Please model this.
Amino acid sequence: MNYSELNWMQIEAYLAEDDRLILVIGATEQHGYLSVLTDVLIPQPLAEAASEHTGVLVAPPLPFGSSPYFLAYPGTISLRMNTLLAVLEDMLRSAYGQGFRKFLVLNGHGGNRGAKAVVDELANQLPGLEAYWYDWWLSPVVPEIAAKHNLTNTHANWSEAFSFTRVTDLPEGEKLFPGPAASFEAKKVRQHFGDGSYGGHYQAPDTVMDEIFNACVQEVISLLERLGK
Amino acid sequence: MNYSELNWMQIEAYLAEDDRLILVIGATEQHGYLSVLTDVLIPQPLAEAASEHTGVLVAPPLPFGSSPYFLAYPGTISLRMNTLLAVLEDMLRSAYGQGFRKFLVLNGHGGNRGAKAVVDELANQLPGLEAYWYDWWLSPVVPEIAAKHNLTNTHANWSEAFSFTRVTDLPEGEKLFPGPAASFEAKKVRQHFGDGSYGGHYQAPDTVMDEIFNACVQEVISLLERLGK
Amino acid sequence: MNYSELNWMQIEAYLAEDDRLILVIGATEQHGYLSVLTDVLIPQPLAEAASEHTGVLVAPPLPFGSSPYFLAYPGTISLRMNTLLAVLEDMLRSAYGQGFRKFLVLNGHGGNRGAKAVVDELANQLPGLEAYWYDWWLSPVVPEIAAKHNLTNTHANWSEAFSFTRVTDLPEGEKLFPGPAASFEAKKVRQHFGDGSYGGHYQAPDTVMDEIFNACVQEVISLLERLGK
Amino acid sequence: MNYSELNWMQIEAYLAEDDRLILVIGATEQHGYLSVLTDVLIPQPLAEAASEHTGVLVAPPLPFGSSPYFLAYPGTISLRMNTLLAVLEDMLRSAYGQGFRKFLVLNGHGGNRGAKAVVDELANQLPGLEAYWYDWWLSPVVPEIAAKHNLTNTHANWSEAFSFTRVTDLPEGEKLFPGPAASFEAKKVRQHFGDGSYGGHYQAPDTVMDEIFNACVQEVISLLERLGK
Amino acid sequence: MNYSELNWMQIEAYLAEDDRLILVIGATEQHGYLSVLTDVLIPQPLAEAASEHTGVLVAPPLPFGSSPYFLAYPGTISLRMNTLLAVLEDMLRSAYGQGFRKFLVLNGHGGNRGAKAVVDELANQLPGLEAYWYDWWLSPVVPEIAAKHNLTNTHANWSEAFSFTRVTDLPEGEKLFPGPAASFEAKKVRQHFGDGSYGGHYQAPDTVMDEIFNACVQEVISLLERLGK
Amino acid sequence: MNYSELNWMQIEAYLAEDDRLILVIGATEQHGYLSVLTDVLIPQPLAEAASEHTGVLVAPPLPFGSSPYFLAYPGTISLRMNTLLAVLEDMLRSAYGQGFRKFLVLNGHGGNRGAKAVVDELANQLPGLEAYWYDWWLSPVVPEIAAKHNLTNTHANWSEAFSFTRVTDLPEGEKLFPGPAASFEAKKVRQHFGDGSYGGHYQAPDTVMDEIFNACVQEVISLLERLGK
Model:
């Protein structure tokens, strides 16, 4: 269940039974031919699928993250790391104040990982707060499935090209891996990566995508179960 | 068009033609029997309807605002005003850096108005930036339509009970107006407002709701037109 | 009584009897032909008159507020909203720590309203803190009295031209209302408003001014009484 | 001339001739038997007297400073050093933006000296900005005059007991110097200093006070002259 | 060469020839039986060895990082992520202002990686700034060498037990890997990890340690060479 | 004992006996012909010598301070005062959380004194925290010893030219005192002070330097003793 489908009384009823909450944090940034919201559009259905299985509530996704290096691509909206830390702190404190204690931060964007620090800082201040942080693409299952199909997962390639992140036709074939950018200045990053993909195939069969999605849902479910009620 | 339906190349193409952008900012807070996302669920379709008419792009909505006084109601997620100022600054700077110049901040929540200050502060720093701020419920057309139907619009009563903000059946009849709270401490605010509505009818006929929605869409359209391309 | 007339022992004696405090916050900004301190010079005597009647103490006025849109007018000193929030927090925490519990923020400037958020945030942290926020010019009595005399009250017109805010002779007659500025960039705001008045008569008879002043004092008194001792 | 006596047009006229500005910063804190505003009530007339002689404008005084160690004395209102830095930055940037270039920060309170750092930081960012910082009580003339009369100047003793800082009768005679506090925790500071004076005579003859006041005015005048127009 | 061995004239002379600078950032935190300064004591000699080879200057190491999860171990001094971002920004801006353009951030501590965001943010503001970020223990060569010797590298085990990080005798043998902590609250982290090592052998032969050290020095050298002069 | 020579278990053992800690804060800034680390290289051995005598622990020195006025000299790395306040707060809170209660801030740099405010602010929040602040060069013994030898101590002259701060040969003879700079803008400060010394002799005999060093060590020892265990 998502917050958008609930009023406060229903959330209060939930809290009488369970104190877990999924916080989805994403990004609005270039993803090659895919939606600029890709980093929300992937973790959000992961959260919802896991929620369906476990009954754990899903808070509204934060659609912005830390993406300074992509700011030269139109459509990127980046928060300073400072701001991101503050937003995540406020989300956690608000929910904690109402009785939530166990949080799964379901992160869709690599640039956000630095914000985990504020979760740890709060764990020292708010007794009983427990939090896991899950980056779906860093889970070992993702490169394992990729390898099985002779694929490599990276930013804005096939591995993020789900049916729900596609907004146009995707190129056939493969892009040479350009390697890491020599500079993190946004203009140079754009010169380096061109269309925005970090290389490899632009697409993979739906069966591969489903395999990845389902494997990640299983992981989210087991993290939620580990958090207990 | 929403950012979620577009990739960066399409946004770049848009920028070659237009430099306007709609920023929807809302809240996640108690709205009586209505969705806790009400303050996003209203401005977002207003933005989309106006976008359909004018072609102006809609950035991803910020689902959190400043609601400290409702924190005792489960489901409220409130940003400190400080944090909200920082988020709005980052949103504007990111888009400005890519060529957007004219912004309509379409605000869904009263507690966010203080954040207008940062828009004005940025207008002195970013040459050519123009921004309007629109609070749909403060538009004179809303109380006018309400008065025509012998209704009063206020927080979490009929005036926010659109088909898309309802998540349960609504009470019949009317709630006495409890008057302003004597304190803004969240616990006392909850004691004062009980179910969260500020009073009056819980529902109004669909025709009234449509009248309000359409009047506001017209206003958003004319603000976008005044901003020019 | 003002803080300036008291030493700490006298304030301690007051606290043994009463825990109310008036915080005056104003602005230093263009007010057309009137003093740039107008937004302090009005709320300060309101506070003092109410203090005389109720005995409630008046803290030193904060002479600066949030006025980014007027920065192109010489003599405007504007705090970032961020800064204003911090100052108000520090004022409240200092006084709360000494036993003050009930605050009336007597605000003289429209741009400061966003700072009310920090009062609400603190109300959740400091048990027993109660605070009202009073914007004298938004009180219904002001437009009512204005209407009775066929006048409209707005920034830097007759409605702020008290004997104690005048620093030069005022123009006779009326200024056309220029309407709202199209932009909030300070340079454009100045181009738009010229002499700084938002329009209407530059002056009104002393009897009208006294009527407004006295009506506002009565309101401040009744807010102080509602706060109780 | 003070800002309170001027409208923006008059300040603009001043700027056509002169780009100097006096910023008075003080404190609201215990001063023994003297007014809690003592640290404003002394620098403000110093500024005004020097202004009368030189014609240099005086901005509205900031009545709050950094006084955490006196917070256990009722009537002390202390800004965090952080806040004070932000306020001073905003004051300087506002005035600089309108053409002021040469600033005399006339400081009335020892705890504020750390804020000088922000003046130096801004001097690297705002071309042509020049600023002096003047702490009247640290000027060598003050202890020299004191010594001549067999007196020692320190916090809240005779050396701050001007006619305009007295709010009650002052004790006769002398207080033993209690020496520095062993701790800066506000409660212990109060236990240590009792009535708040740091020791010595509570009063000195008016002729001594005038001698000090006039010597400081001369110093302010010569700093203003050194700043040039 | 280190800053400590140079005066400003020598650094100016260096800048006439080269614009590279190594910034060492570490941590003061529990490292099991090893020095609490381990995360400085490793990157600092790496920097010095690479400096000897390339002539690139080494700025004074920042001895504090983000380690909230180890705060229950005496001797841990942790900066909030916020603070760390600010320090790194100030270090970069200071050096950039004097002509340094190419930076190698030689990081000794995992918790600091979130601070890379501020380097990227600055790369968009300071033209020509280039920066690499190097985490020695994440370099593929480290686990490769470890694997060759049937070892696993992790926090506070043999892989950080260099001659210069040892402050006492180290335990013989191996610690079972306790696995990741279930919570990041500092108290629970300490309960979980006990002596602070994340498991595995406490020591390895000097030849293994030298192999790792030398491999990392080679990597630092080649990053410096890639940065060019 | 320094933190670098200890592991957490040893620090825990220390805390069972003593709750004092020395925090050395310095600067990285021009010091004429002397090391840019002079303001660390002096207080650090003072701390170590006092530690040897008293057994009080020494935390890792913060090598950066507030030096905006020297930024035009290569090799100066300056923290904004804001940042410095945050770092000092984090250092104190970290150590306090582990049981340290009595702190001696051994400061090596004049520009850092404003940061004392945060120590006082924390003293009101952390029960039992006691802290002294020691600026060695402001101790009366330093000018007394100087006067005895017909010398004047000031920035970057003989008084900081210890054997351990010298990195090159020093000029013979004396520099005329240029007097205070007319501006604190870094470029003008450099024009004014040239080689960076504030004037006077560049060197003094080792016996004078030892006399000063030993006198300061005695003072540090007696402050530590006054703090008690």
Remarks:
- Residues 137 and 208 of chain A are 14 Å apart (CA to CA).
- Chain A touches chain B through 55 residues (CB under 8 Å).
- The beta strands of chain A are 20-25, 57-58, 102-107, 130-135, 174-175, 200-201.
- Chain A has a mean pLDDT of 97.
